[in-house]
Amino acid sequence: MNILLARSAGFCFGVKRATRMAFEAAESHDGICSLGPIIHSPQLVKKLEEKGVVVVDRVNEIPEGAVIIRSHGVTSGELKEINDRHLEVVDATCPFVKSAQDHAALLSREGYAVVLVGEREHPEVQGILSYAESGDVFVVGAAAEAEAISRRKRLGLIAQTTQSFETFRQVAAICLDKCQELRIFNTICDATSVRQDEAQEIAHRSDLVLVIGGFNSANTSRLAQICADIQPRTQHIETAEQLRKEWFEGVETVGITAGASTPRWLIDEVILGVQKISN
Ligand code: SF4
Question: Which residues form the active site (predicted)?
């Protein structure tokens, strides 16, 4: 059985950085909190818990000491609360997310109504929005929603880092008709599209596709959906223990990819599991 592993499978730059910072902080502190799980990988969050990293949902649940800010970042209100409490901060906000926050702040400061292309409820979007401290803000989940924006003098357009460029381009086109001046900052990071393009390519060349990553990870679930649309024999798994022999009947090529929050050791265990079944 041939195994096709996507080059981009697993951690993106921001998740790799945040994970490294979290493990280093766990080593150097006697107990530390993270505001929300560091990444959407239950297996990795468990490893960090074993090293003393306690996940909390709100700043007021953090006892004295230090807090890790995950790669999605936090809202300006949460950051103020953290600073008011004089907590030590290990800031693992991805620099690309930080850049989107800074652009939201800049646009609102300079008098633009901010249009943010993204998922309203996502913590990253909530964080970015909070930095647009004055003027109107609009969150647009799909291009058609931009039609509802009322005409105004200035619009500033940014995006959640994981959005598709095509949606961003369509929203930009609609916004052009809605204002006299449109300022655009492309804050999309290409980690998502690179993974999705490779997943498509692998699905076309495989008889079975395994997509590894947390069931709570939106980007992994999306990869699984993209693969399943091309190759119905697609399985989304979190660990090697979930592999089933019967999936491999008549399979010559197995494609493997993984979400941006899937640790390398989980990918390696799945490859080993596939090799055992193959033998
Ligand atoms: S997907 Fe991009 S923006 Fe998000 S954490 Fe990874 S590198 Fe950073």
Answer: 124 (proton donor)
